[in-house]
Amino acid sequence: MQEGLSSYRLGYVANCLSLGLGASHTCRLAGATPQRLEELIELNLSELEQLLLFNEARGIELFRIGSSLIPFGSHPVNMLPWWKKWARDFDRLGHIARRSRQRLSLHPSPAAASLTSVHQRVRDAAIAELRYSARILDLLGQGPESRVVLHLGGAAPSRPEALDNAHRMLDAMPEELRNRLVIEHDDKIWSAREAAPLAREHGLPWLADNLHNRIEPSTPEMPLEELLRESAASWRALDLRPKFHLASQKPDGRPGAHADRIDPADFQAVLAALDGPADLMLEAKDKDLALFALRQNAAVLSPGAAPQP
């Protein structure tokens, strides 16, 4: 960890390119037999252990688990009592994460978990996905700083109605589930100035993303310093360490597409905007390799200040 007023920790998402592992093996719905699901769960939990040990050995204290750790974990096709059958495995994995201070998270796809949908079947599926994701963090013994990252969803049939649906869904959600969530603005529909009040009203933190803020800016625009400051305040109000997403635009990619690595200029801009200790989840195609590259960049700019690979 880099020390000082604006100390930070870096993390990466799901797949470790150094190991060639991702703990996210799944199958087609038609092939999701109990036997096949058991095989995949065993494989994914084994890979997750290797990932956590890899992180521990390299001082990586921030990691996002892939949503397919338990294939079809929120779908009726998976009738296995996986949380009981593999309870000892989760205990062992949780011990590794806790002893190495790894802050874990999950991030369901917007298609799997939408707050704004008017359709009951979509809302029911979202609750099932969020319950599954929260259960993973609970089984791993993670504290309240470990959250399920959630986008709002679509804006149909109108923005006011969609936001009203989101409020009603959060109001009806069990407290123990709601307290595992963090709301994130996105790069297509909902800006930071729209997502933040929703989170605030329900006592939730909201997660700032530098690239999303660039692609889907707020009205009025929210400078990076304000974005991070306001997001950090929502975490600190709950006595939690702030966490942000850090990404760079892929050259020649669609707006919002993640680059392979983090542009050092984006990294330095975020560091300069920090108003205190924070965690930075890197959303980059090169995963752990992008993290190691940033460590090297930080070491060159401030020798001895950054963590070593």
Characterize the structure shown.
The chain has 309 residues and is of the alpha/beta class. 43% of the residues lie in helices and 10% in strands. The protein is built from 11 helices and 8 strands. It has helices at residues 34-57, 82-85, 87-99, 120-139, 159-172, 175-178, 192-201, 210-215, 224-236, 264-273, 287-301; strands at residues 8-13, 62-64, 103-105, 148-151, 181-184, 206-207, 243-246, 278-282. Strands 3-2-1-8-7 form a 5-stranded parallel β-sheet. It has a 3-stranded parallel β-sheet with strand order 4-5-6. Helix 1 (34-57) links the parallel strand 1 (8-13) and strand 2 (62-64). Helix 1 (34-57) runs parallel beside helix 3 and helix 9 (224-236) crosses helix 10.
List keywords for this structure.
5-stranded parallel beta sheet, 309 residues, 3-stranded parallel beta sheet, 8 strands, alpha/beta, 11 helices
Taking pLDDT < 50 over at least 5 consecutive residues as the criterion, the unreliable ranges are 303-309
What letter string, H or E per element, gives the SSE order?
EHEHHEHEHHEHEHHEHEH
Task: Give me the Rg, rounded.
Answer: 19 Å
Query: Which structural class is indicated by helix and strand composition?
Result: alpha/beta
**Total helical segments:** 11
Q: What's the short story on this structure?
A:
The chain has 309 residues and is of the alpha/beta class.
What is the strand and helix layout of this fold?
Elements lengths: L7 E6 L20 H24 L4 E3 L17 H4 L1 H13 L3 E3 L14 H20 L8 E4 L7 H14 L2 H4 L2 E4 L7 H10 L4 E2 L2 H6 L8 H13 L6 E4 L17 H10 L4 E5 L4 H15 L8
Helix pairs in contact: 1-3, 9-10
